[in-house]
Design brief:
Strand content: 15-25%
Strand order of the largest sheet: 7-6-8-9-10-11
Number of domains: 2
Helix content: 25-40%
Radius of gyration: 20 Å
Order of helices and strands: EHEHEHEHEHEHEEHEHEHEHEHHHE
CATH architecture of the largest domain: 3-Layer(aba) Sandwich
Number of strands: 13
Shape: globular
Length: 339
């Protein structure tokens, strides 16, 4: 039977993968000591999975309990016939909640509100953001060229978003033709975007050209959860942007459970083993948020106030360490039931 080596920070991973044999690792050192006796690796985005880590090991399947896969060297894995899987979409609900939290912070602390919103990337997370924005009274323009031929989807070109009061970024970061997203928000885009427009990035750092952003007037209205070269993020960007949180947009308790369960379902299917998933029956506290009630702003900020993490990062003397510390400490947030 396959032997799994899994990140100990994943909730109840051993129970979810029962009856498979699961060993936990707490850091890369403990991983390396145990990896030779396992053939499946389950990780988070904090682990770089590449040749250096896996060369001459028995690992033949890598599962990441995250939506993103940038930490996986997919070319090397494919060349060495190592299969990989992800939990894409598991944190979509949490990311949509995060956007609403940012909007609540802007209203409460800056008196900002708008009428027109743009969404770049309308997959699972972007679609949930669209629903929430519309419930808050925004007219929403969606940009996702990969979906432009779908009958029930309206694709707007990027230039149609230039007059939006807020633009939310939710696309994958890639260079795949014909619609690469690397530096999609670049100098040309920023020069055309309205002066007082808000940019919210809860996707990946590389989608925004940080050099171009720093040279533009839009940096002071930039609210971001993601960066190039995490955790060694650009100090000038951090000091100049409006809000900076430590890559926690998708980090709700439910999202973490969903990711483990979603990954387990794929791996059981791949191994042709019948799963037992006791955690599918776990109930979580129901946090109802009525967007028609003005008190929704105070309610969501009582769940998480992004200004506190942002201030802690902005005044930090060791940004990389504090980035990791704050991210690890973000283990208290629940999904909201958006009404």
């Amino acid at each position: 039977m396959s032997r799994i080596l899994a990140d100990a920070n994943l909730p109840d991973v051993a129970q979810v993968f029962h009856p498979l044999n699961v060993t936990l690792f707490t850091d890369e050192d403990s991983l390396l000591k145990q990896i030779q006796s396992h053939d499946i690796l389950i990780c988070r985005s904090t682990l770089k999975v590449n040749e250096r880590l896996l060369k001459n090991t028995p690992i033949r399947l890598v599962g990441t309990a995250t939506s993103g896969t940038e930490h996986l060297d997919k070319n090397w894995l494919e060349a060495n016939q190592i299969r990989y899987m992800s939990a894409k979409g598991a944190n979509a609900h949490a990311v949509a909640d995060y956007v609403c939290i940012i909007l609540a912070w802007l209203q409460k602390n800056k008196g900002w509100w708008g009428k027109k919103a743009g969404i770049i990337g309308c997959g699972k997370a972007g679609s949930k953001v669209k629903y929430r924005l519309e419930s808050l009274g925004f007219t929403v323009y969606t940009n996702d060229p990969w979906r432009r031929d779908e009958a029930n989807f309206t694709h707007h070109p990027l230039n149609a978003l230039q007059d939006c009061d807020v633009i939310c970024i939710h696309c994958d970061h890639h260079e795949n033709q014909p619609y690469p997203s690397h530096h999609l928000v670049n100098q040309d885009f920023l020069q055309r975007y309205k002066t007082n427009g808000i940019l919210i990035n809860a996707a990946r750092g590389g989608i925004v050209d940080e050099t171009a952003l720093l040279a533009s007037i839009h940096c002071e209205n930039y609210c971001t959860d993601v960066y190039n070269n995490e955790p060694d993020i650009n100090t000038h960007l951090l000091k100049s942007c409006m809000l900076a949180t430590p890559h926690i947009a998708g980090h709700t308790i439910e999202a973490k459970y969903n990711a483990v369960i979603m990954l387990a379902q794929q791996i059981f299917e791949y191994l042709n083993i019948r799963p037992t998933h006791p955690l599918l029956k776990v109930s979580f506290p129901e946090i109802n948020v009525n967007s028609k009630n003005p008190e929704w702003i105070n309610k969501v900020l009582s769940i998480y106030n992004p200004g506190l993490d942002s201030q802690a990062l902005k005044i930090s003397s060791d940004i990389a360490q504090d980035f990791k510390r704050l991210r690890k400490a973000h283990n208290f947030r629940h999904d909201m039931n958006w009404l």
